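Researcher: Go.
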Amino acid sequence: MAGDPYRDVFIAEARDLTAALEQDLVDLEGKSGDGELISRIFRAAHTMKSSAAMFGFPEIASLTHAMESVLDRVRDHVLAIDAAVVNTLLDALDCLRQMVNEATEGTSSDHSEALAPLCERLLQVAAGATFGPAAVSPPAGVEPKVTTYQIHLALNDDVFFQGTSPTLLLDELATLGHVIEVRCDTSRVPEICEIDPLKLYLSWDITLTSTAARTAVEEVFLFCRNDGDIHIAELTDGPPASPCPCTGSPAAKDGSAIPVAAVATGVQEGPASTAPRLVVAPVAGR
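Model: Structure:
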């Protein structure tokens, strides 16, 4: 949609991410042991994939998804970095840059003939088809730092018109680590006869443990950071023992906890459970 300000924001951010990717990929072969560099490249591809899908650029989403598959295996020390890996990623970046430039100019071309073999090539590299030397494991005895994040997400009620999907944001957070709990506040939901299906009435408080840096969590909200109330706090003493609303949520302003109306069914009980808890706060007066 020409003139859509939110798509314009995506295009501007995509151009910045593409430029950063180019420099980082050039540096990658000579810095194959730089974990922060690898994570930064992965986050850029992941952010572009999610945002392109959200704002209606399926070809960009498909290509960055294939790039992400390679980078995920590199990040997990399954695939070693060599010239074949770097050159394939640079070829993908050339195609990505062309698509971003076309989006900037408001033009479009059919990239299907070039895109299909390029994505297949990326997936073959991810599977190790062109891979030789053994991957380098992280140093023995070095444990990555795990941080617990408390995230409050309260988007504007008109956020659907901006192309933002709260469920996609929650899904993307889950890729960064382990979601311990998702608390949903339904206190703004009106009577059923007054509900507008085009408005968002819910907000969320999420507890996430992750080895990712705070910048990676912030990048999940890159394209909606000005579209509501988003707070990210780092908990230094580990995850809370009981549900705790994030600072900034309506129920937390007076220091009281949101009363629990229901806990989602299907969550395993006992110490073996790894599924996140979904807690639903009741609608006021019901």
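Model: The domain at 147-281 is CATH 3.30.70.1110 (Alpha-Beta Plaits).
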